[in-house]
Amino acid sequence: MPECHDEVCITCSDVAVAVRVREVLAGGLAVVDTDAGPEEISVALVEAGPGDVVLVHAKEAIAVVERPS
């Protein structure tokens, strides 16, 4: 299990955290930028692409909140 370095961790927090998608991978996965560095999450529930900001809860993107203009 990843180690949490901040008050809010996108892996084990009870709140959703906004993060920016760095890269979309095969199999409904993506790499996002976090304060602790890159982290892999699932984007299976949303249509997200590089540059999008998504809300993540328990390593699952649950909403796209911002798209690059």
Explain what the structure shows.
With 69 residues, this protein is an all-beta fold. The protein has a single domain, classed as SH3 type barrels, CATH 2.30.30.140. The chain is built from no helices and 5 strands. The chain has strands at 17-25, 29-34, 37-42, 53-57, 60-66. Strands 3-2-1-4-5 form a 5-stranded antiparallel sheet, with no helix packed on it. The termini are far apart. The relative contact order is 0.26. The mean pLDDT is 88.
Give a brief description.
The protein is an all-beta fold and 69 residues long. It has one domain: SH3 type barrels.
- Tell me the count of domains: 1
Strand order of the largest sheet: 3-2-1-4-5
Cα-atom Rg, whole angstroms?
11 Å
**How would you sum up the global shape?**
globular
- What quaternary form is this? single chain
- Average pLDDT figure: 88
Largest sheet: 5 strands, antiparallel
* CATH class designation: Mainly Beta
Features:
single chain; 69 residues; mainly beta; SH3 type barrels; five-stranded antiparallel beta sheet; globular
Topology:
Elements: E1 17-25, E2 29-34, E3 37-42, E4 53-57, E5 60-66
Protein name: Hydrogenase assembly protein HupF
Family: Belongs to the HupF/HypC family.
Organism: Micromonospora craterilacus
